[in-house]
Amino acid sequence: MCNINPNYSPSVLDKKYRLADFFNQHWANYLQHPKEPITEEQFKAVNMMRLCRTPALGKDIYSCPDCDDVTEVYHSCKNRFCPTCSWQDTVKWAEKINNRMLASKHRHVVITLPHELNDLIKSNNELLLDVLLRVSSETITDWMHHKHSVTPGVISVLHTFGETKNYHPHVHMIVSWGGLDSQNKQKEIKGDFVNYDFIKKKFRLKFEDALVGCYNNNSLTHRFKDRKDFFRFLKRVNEKRWVVHMEPTMANPAHVVRYIGRYSKRACLSEYKITRMEGDFIGFKYKDYKTVDKKGKAVEKELVLHYRDFFPRLLQHVPPKRFRMVRYYGLYSNKGYIPEQYRNTKKIESPEKWENIQEEVTGENPLICKKCNKRKSYDYTISRRRQEPSVRIYVRKELVREFDLMKNVA
C-alpha cells in the first residue's frame, strides 16, 4: 500500500522543503509568546496547511482488480493560504475562465499604493482593500470608455505582499485591450501607448475621494487628531509615488490565461523558493528589483529569518474571512455580456495529471499495480469532516459520478 499526494505542482521537481514542516516544528513555541496578535483566520490557515495531505483530512482509495494492492490518496486542505492547494485552484480556475474571455489582445496592469498608506490600510483591512480593488478597476474602465469608447473586460487580483513578504498592497489586472462599443461590436485598441501621468492622477484622485468619504462617514479607523490633521496626511501622501505599470499586449488568449495563473490564487510563499530550514531559521529566495544584472534583470537574493520574525511576516497576508481576492469587472463581471462570436473558443492545454507528475518524480505511476501491471480502480472515499468527530465513507456511482453515502464509522 502506498500514500500519494494528489496536488503536485510543476515546481515540485525543484521543491526541497515543506512549509508545513517548519510550522510543525516551531508553531507551538511561537504561540506561547506571539510577536503579533493572531487572528481566527490565521489560526485556521496554519492548522489547515499543517493537516494538508495527511490522514486527518481523509483519503481516496484505489485498488488493483486482481491482487487488491491498495493506493491511498490523501486529501488536500483547499485553504487559500496553502502553497500546494493554491496551485491546484489556479489550474481549475484558468480552465473555467478561458472561455469567458474576449478573443482579443490583453494587457497586464499593476497598480500600487504608496507605502505611507500601509498602516492605515492595516487598520482598515477589508474596507480599504475593497476600495483599492474597486477604484483601480474604475480607473481603467472609465479611461477606456472615455478615451476609446469601449467597455473592457477586467480581471483583478489583490496581493498584499512584496518579494520579501513585506506588506505591499497592490492590484494585478488583466485588461482586454479593447472591448465592446455602444453597439455591442468588438473594437480593439491600436498600439500600446498610454499617458501614464494621466492614469496615475486619475487613480490617486479616485482613491483619495473614497478615503475622504470613509473619513466623513466615520467608517475609517484612524489616529488623526482632527480633519486638518487628516488632510495634512493626504497632502504628504500626494507627494509620494502612485505607481501604474502596463506590460506590452499579449495577443494569444491562452497565454493570457497562463499569465493570469501566476498572479491569481497562488500562495504568498511558493515552497520551491525556500532555500533552507536550519534550526530556528528559514531562508527563501527573492528578486531584488533595485539591483539588476548586466541584462537588466532583477538579481536573486536570499533572506533568512528566525521563526519569530518569519511567522508574523507571512501571516499578515492571510486573506480576511470571505474576502474575494479575485474580482471581475466590465465585460467579465456577472452583469457583463459578450456575444458568442467575440468569445475565446480556443481551449488551453490540459494541465498534467497528478499521477503523471508523480511518475516523473518517482519513476513509477502510483495507479499502475507493480505486481499485475494493471491500472488500479477507484474504490471509495474516506472523508473526515472538520466539524464532526465521525468518519464518513463514500462510494462514487458509476454513471452520475456523484458520491453516495454508505455508512458512518464512529
Overall pLDDT level: 84
Number of domains: 2
| Major sheet summary line | 6 strands, mixed
Query: What is the tally of helical segments?
Result: 10
Order of helices and strands: EHHEEHEHHEEEEHHEHEEEHEHEEE
The helix-and-strand class reads alpha+beta
- Overall, the morphology is globular
What is the number of beta strands? 16
Poorly predicted regions: 1-13, 397-410
Proportion in helices: 25-40%
Describe what you observe in this structure:
The chain is of the alpha+beta class and 410 residues long. It folds into two domains: 2-79 and 354-409, no CATH class; 85-268 and 317-342, no CATH class. 32% of the residues lie in helices and 25% in strands. The strands form four sheets. Strands 1-3-2-14-15-16 form a six-stranded mixed beta sheet, with no helix packed on it. Strands 9-4-6-5-13 form a five-stranded antiparallel beta sheet. A hairpin with a 6-residue loop joins strand 15 and strand 16. Helix 1 (19-32) packs across helix 2 and helix 3 runs antiparallel to helix 8. It starts with a strand and ends with a strand.
Key traits:
410 residues, disordered N terminus, 32% helix, six-stranded mixed sheet, disordered C terminus, five-stranded antiparallel sheet
Which SSEs are present, and which pair or pack?
Elements: E1 2-4, H1 19-32, H2 40-51, E2 59-63, E3 70-74, H3 83-98, E4 106-112, H4 118-123, H5 125-148, E5 153-161, E6 167-176, E7 178-180, E8 186-188, H6 196-216, H7 227-238, E9 243-246, H8 253-261, E10 274-278, E11 281-292, E12 298-306, H9 307-315, E13 326-330, H10 354-362, E14 377-384, E15 391-396, E16 403-409
Parallel strand pairs: 1-3
Antiparallel strand pairs: 2-3, 2-14, 4-6, 4-9, 5-6, 5-13, 7-8, 10-11, 11-12, 14-15, 15-16
Helix pairs in contact: 1-2, 3-8, 5-6
